[in-house]
Amino acid sequence: MTDSLHIVGGGMAGSEAAWQAAEMGVDVVIHEMRPKVGTFAHQTGNLAEMVCSNSFRSDDDEQNAVGLLHWEMRAAGGLIMSSADAHRLPAGGALAVDRDPFAETVTNRLRNHPRISVTEEEVTDLPKDGQWIFATGPLTSPALGEAIRHQTGADSLAFFDAIAPIVYADTIDMRRAWLQSRYDKGETEEERTAYINCPMDRDQYEAFIDALLAADKTEFHEGETATYFDGCLPIEVMAERGRETLRHGPMKPVGLTNPHQPDVKPYAVVQLRRDNALGTLYNIVGFQTKMKYGAQTSVFRMIPGLEEAGFARLGGIHRNTFINSPTLLDSQMRLRSRPNIRFAGQITGVEGYVESAAMGLLAGRFAAAEMLGRDIAEVPHDSAMGALIHHITGGADAKTFQPMNVNFGLFRPVDGLKGGRRGRKDRYKAYTDRAKAAWNDWLSHS
């Protein structure tokens, strides 16, 4: 058991972790419960089965953070990206994949690798011995989920996202919004200005409620269930309980003074709270929702100050098992309370095929290096990989931690570049140039 790296879960993350570790010279055992134990979403026993979209999203490595992540994975000899490239479908600037041949290719390459074996069994506990990576994703089995909950604490494992939208800070119109915590609470100036506030008069509030109630909503997928609790009610459910409900909930206007109009008391206020250490991302407080994405964009841009908002992530509530990684994992994705265990993929709090595979790539390399007695440098924060892993293992606010896609809001700003929407082309190119150099340097020393 101690001579091999054991990987639980054969999705995007587990498959990539296995490939990277084996290519570094470590024997790997993949433990995949399918097809013996199925899920409501999977149709086959193939590894890396795509259960949702067949898109890996943008492939633009100069102007898009996902495309940059594609580039970094290709540079690292990633199995997921090479298999996706082999089964690419026409999709404009996106990378769309012929899903069945893609999964078959990943499965065959892993099963035929001389250092990899695959066993079809369900793992239901966290072993105390050996080196393990758990990459079981959003459909982690109930038994294993309970074992993880027992090890990490009841409040550190979520079975449903209750996601509020996240906005790029530099797209908020501060001529209409202002910085202030309710009642100016806090011992420091940073604490007293921890929120961005967007005021509404009565007409704006009534129009917002009308749009919210009329917006298209999504339903839970078959096999998903959720009992709403008052701490994470969708805003449209709150609005359905009464038109004034939001004014007495997340949009209450008390304890706030608008410096742009100090003599006018807002009828309602939407608050945004800083979502990362860099201060580049803000989440809309209490705005978890089941509105469809297109509806969210149009409804939320009715909020004064958010008319031109750019969204790093839109809201949602859906089945997605994940741990509170900022409190539980170290910088090499090891469980602090059980360092022989790493987590990778969506269960760590990333969203999307590519992000999941990327975290698998890093976990596989970290584990292999440790087993081989090699030192491995910290992943550079300026790379897409580094920005993402830093976010989930410490850059995010643990109290409000929710799964995240890779986006430029996770990157350190580049000095001397114009902010806002007009300067983003040059800014994004600077991010990607800096990231590629940092990533290549890391690979050459790893």
Major β-sheet strand ordering:
6-2-1-7-17-16
What percentage of residues falls in helices of 4 or more residues? Answer: 25-40%
Q: Quickly count the helices.
A: 13
Tell me, what is the CATH class of the largest domain?
A: Alpha Beta
Query: Globular, elongated, flat, extended or rod-shaped: what is the shape?
Result: globular
CATH architecture identity of the largest domain:
3-Layer(bba) Sandwich
**Overall pLDDT:** 89
Spatial extent as radius of gyration: 22 Å
The CATH superfamily of the largest domain is FAD/NAD(P)-binding domain
How many distinct domains? Answer: 2
Class by alpha and beta content = alpha+beta
Compressed to H and E, one letter per element, the order equals EHEEHHEEHEEHEEEHEHHEEHEEHEEHHH
Instruction: Indicate the proportion of strand residues.
Output: 15-25%
User: What oligomeric state is this?
Assistant: single chain
Give your account of this protein's structure.
- The protein is an alpha+beta fold.
- The protein folds into two domains: 5-161 and 319-440, FAD/NAD(P)-binding domain, CATH 3.50.50.60; 166-314, Beta Barrel (Elongation Factor Tu (Ef-tu), domain 3).
- 32% of the residues lie in helices and 17% in strands.
- It is built from 13 helices and 17 strands.
- The protein has helices spanning 12-23, 65-75, 79-86, 99-111, 142-152, 189-192, 202-214, 235-240, 293-300, 325-328, 353-371, 384-395, 424-444; strands spanning 5-8, 28-31, 55-58, 88-89, 94-97, 116-119, 131-134, 157-163, 166-168, 178-179, 195-200, 268-274, 281-284, 311-313, 316-323, 334-335, 338-343.
- Strands 6-2-1-7-17-16 form a six-stranded mixed beta sheet, with helices on one face.
- Strand 12 (268-274) and strand 13 form a beta hairpin.
- The chain is globular, with a radius of gyration of 22 Å.
- The chain starts with a strand and ends with a helix.
- Its EC number is 2.1.1.74.
- Residues 5-374 form the MnmG N-terminal domain.
